[in-house]
Backbone:
């Protein structure tokens, strides 16, 4: 029985982005400045309206966009290579127009990142390396 429990813990372990509170507080402001600057830059092209920008210590997400137009980012964007952080910011920015992952949505992302598929792979690889899973 104990072996089965260990198996399920390994197989169904969720990938975690959440860091220690100390690390979160250390990088939160840096991530907020980055997000605001890059949103301003990329939104010159898109012209989307958004409300609040928040930096969170999310467990499994790099970012999210609410129906109310609030954009949330994981503080870890401040630790990413610039191109990957920009991809995440553009990804969430495009959700202001398309709250899904339809062809239309990916077309919006491709306006800034035609190689978005490659960037998604790099982001997954970076995530695995950060969490010690890859």
Residues:
């Amino acid at each position: 029985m104990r072996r089965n429990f260990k198996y399920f813990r390994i197989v169904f372990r969720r990938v975690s982005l959440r860091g220690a509170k100390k690390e979160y507080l250390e990088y939160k402001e840096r991530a907020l400045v980055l997000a605001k600057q890059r949103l301003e830059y990329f939104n010159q092209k898109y012209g989307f309206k958004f409300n609040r920008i928040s930096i969170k210590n999310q467990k499994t997400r790099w970012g999210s966009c609410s129906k109310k137009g609030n954009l949330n980012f994981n503080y870890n964007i401040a630790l990413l290579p610039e191109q990957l952080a920009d991809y995440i910011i553009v990804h969430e920015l495009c959700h202001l127009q398309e709250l899904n992952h339809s062809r239309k949505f990916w077309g919006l992302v491709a306006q800034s990142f035609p190689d978005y598929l490659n960037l998604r792979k790099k982001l997954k690889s970076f995530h695995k390396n950060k969490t010690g899973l890859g």
About this structure: Residues 21-46 form the longest helix (26 residues).
